[in-house]
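Agenda item 2: adenosine-5'-triphosphate complex prediction
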Amino acid sequence: MQNQEDQLKQIIAHAKEYGFIYPSSEIYDGLSATYDYGPLGVELKNLIKDYWWKSMVQMQENIVGLDAAIFMHPKTWEASGHTTAFNDPMIDNKDSKKRYRADVLIEDWAAKIEEKINKEVDKAKKRFGDDFDEEQFRSTNARVLDRQKKIDAAMDAFKTAMDADDLEAVRQLILDLDIADPVSGSRNWTDVRQFNLMFSTEMGSTAEGASKVYLRPETAQGIFVNFLNVQKTSRMKIPFGIAQIGKAFRNEIIARQFIFRMREFEQMEMQFFVRPGEELEWYEKWKENRMKWHADLGFDSDYYRFHDHVKLAHYANAAADIEFKFPFGFKELEGVHSRTDFDLKQHEEHSGKKLQYFDPELNKSYVPYVIETSIGLDRMFLAVLSASLKQEQLEDGSERVVLKLPAKLSPYQAAILPLVKKDGLPEKAREVFDELKSSFMLQYDEKDSIGKRYRRQDAIGTLLSITLDHQSLEDQTVTVRDRDSMEQSRIAISELHYHIQARLK
Ligand code: ATP
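Presented output:
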């Protein structure tokens, strides 16, 4: 069993070695929390986008797409609340000079105690066997109760301090909980300060009087300000949705954990506009729908869980995260939020324009309510990569590293491999390659032994390896090896198209 840190390291190394992800501007030693996607990375990313777009737009009669600009009128961010409220409380360690999010330090402290509780529960489970009643144990065991009480008290104190904007109380809580810098172990903390997460830049030349603009911190606002444009031009009737995939930028204070938290990232968001009063029904539907989207990829259901928000943002009347079991634990992968009519109303107020829908059935106009589903493309990439990367022990005692990507997310559907680099096999293999390349993403490889080539294709997740040997020249058949089962079958070249297609389903 690998520990969590090793598992993440292995994923990062694998992603680099095979051209999925490189650190940005690496020759200058990289730029923190920004990454570049290599040849395989861009393929996988496009496949994830495609899978999302197909299910959210193509398969939904009442959802249409949008691609709004990254720059938006600065008033947008006043209306949305980002200029004043898009802050994280941060604290610096005076010894290590490292900066942390105060809320993350406290949450990590709580997670450690929770881990202890879970260990206690596991131990009891083993001791009592089938008779074990977990709920009863959690509600009666003194040690568990004591620890849970500590967590609850700390979280309550944190919430109270944040609600009152009392940053000194947040600092005091960190001291009281005896939280140390995870890097240096030091407890020498600065004050807690608020830090706005938006990047800004100047638009226009200084002579003209340049104005400050922001790089959007979320794609959602582009959808809200275009609500009426889209509704009218696409003749949409409520309920309907607008979907968008695009870049977002956040000056994250702590940006660790690879592509989980980046300063430049991509979001796949959909805002669904509904009648006031019907939003909670739609919220439940979208929660279910989005979880199903994840489940359809075929990873173990243990990887996912819902986390319902107890503390709601001021604009929401229900919210949940779909959490994924990353190598560093369960973390938010996607958010499903019932955002009420907050955003549209704010934009009405700040722009002075009406953003209302005339409902012919009700014969009245109203500002619609909104359900949002928002998933980070890069986080989804990391989820897929970490659930797919496997180290397998083979029957002959050897090991293989295989990327068991869902079939529809495999960058290459097949590799075409001549057994040897002579006797007309490369020419025959090229013929097969040329015949299939307009239908499938293929790789042609004739370098190294066939065993090595199989390993290479396994490592990048290629679904099928198609080998041409001397018999192929005589009877027009090839050997097809499946990535997951490693089973080989003999198939006629004329059947390959059908065979690959069938495997993709
Ligand atoms: P977190 O609490 O992890 O910072 P958030 O609640 O601020 O996330 P949202 O504002 O709800 O995130 O954004 C929606 C989605 O965008 C998240 O579920 C996540 O998948 C993705 N996302 C947010 N911030 C980042 C980031 N810095 N890097 C990569 N993906 C991100």
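Discussion summary: The chain has 17 helices and 23 strands.
Owner for follow-up: CH.
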